[in-house]
Amino acid sequence: MYIEQAFKSLHEWWRYLLGFIIIFIVWQLIGSIPLIAGILYTIGLEGIQNGDFPTDIPEMADVLGNNLFLFLMLLSFAIGLVGVFFNSKVIHQQSISELTTARKKIDWSRFWFVFILWGTVSSAFVFVDYFMEPEGYVWNFKLVPFLTLAVIAILLVPLQTSMEEYFFRGYLMQALGVITKTRWFPLFLTSIVFGLMHLANPEVEQLGYVIMVYYIGTGFFLGIMTLMDDGLELALGFHAANNLFTALLVTADWTAFQTDSLFKDISEPTSAGFIDVFMPVFVVFPIIIFILAKKYKWTNWSEKLLGKVVEPVKEDYKIIE
């Protein structure tokens, strides 16, 4: 099973603590240097002296321009992903494949299946909403900025989403499973922390704290996929499709992704409602889970989601391999 993959590598608790510190430094501190440097260079010495440093995402996008801001923001995640892989290889002596899946090799067909599935479904939702309420959108297409956006998004969005998946559903899921010998605890904690990570997003201020139901619910959805499928492939594909198609199709002044997308949402939502929060978490995601469960023949749900983590005996490692 997926969490048990960690037992093939060096898995003492202090290694995970050290690894978490390294990832935090690489991702949040070193990864932020290009973005901070870009802002400081743009506002100049006079702007620094006047205290004009932007403090939120829309302000940063205004200072740098949408595409440069997106590039520098996503670059911090790409740098963070290097930190995760460094930990895996150096601190734990674990292969990227073993961090990714319990299968003998990474199954990219799983990634592409859910990527295409969710890319199609999520795009359909955007176009349906546009045709139902066209007054809430403006056509935002400009050829050169959009092509620039497409290049940045296609290259870096999958790295951003992969960083989050390898960190939350990968590194932390395995670490907490090995340390607590449970499955439910890493599922719950990584999902909650994943949701709380989005507290600084402008959507929270605009839509209210009820939007956290969506973020935490998405964390549970991705965690369930990972544990039931014994690997990150589905979570990687879903997350990449979700962020990539969102970046290309629609933006708004109150969203984390400030992009030169095809459409701009000019509506003024005052609070998140059923469609924004509850329908994805309690209707759409369960349908996706049902489709994947049928396709990949998932069984033994209670054991995989709530059962104990048992370290395999050394002889079993050869069987797994």
Choose one word for the global shape.
globular
Number of domains: 1
Class derived from helix and strand content: mainly alpha
- Give the strand tally: 3
Q: SSE string, helix = H, strand = E?
A: HHHHHHEHHHHHEEHHH
Average pLDDT: 92
User: What is the makeup of the main sheet?
Assistant: 3 strands, mixed
Low-confidence stretches: none
Radius of gyration: 20 Å
| Beta-strand residue percentage | under 5%
Helical coverage, percent range: over 70%
User: Count of helical segments?
Assistant: 14
Q: In angstroms, what separates the terminal alpha carbons? A: 12 Å
Strand order of the main beta sheet, please? 1-3-2
Overview of the structural elements:
- The protein is mainly α.
- The chain has one domain.
- Helix content is 71%, strand content 3%.
- The protein has a 3-stranded mixed beta sheet with strand order 1-3-2.
- The mean pLDDT is 92.
Protein topology:
Blueprint: H1 13-30, H2 33-49, H3 57-64, H4 66-91, H5 96-100, H6 108-132, E1 137-139, H7 143-180, H8 184-196, H9 202-207, H10 212-229, H11 233-249, E2 250-252, E3 263-265, H12 274-296, H13 301-306, H14 314-320
Parallel strand pairs: 2-3
Antiparallel strand pairs: 1-3
Helix pairs in contact: 1-4, 2-4, 3-4, 4-7, 6-11, 7-8, 7-11, 8-10, 10-11, 10-12
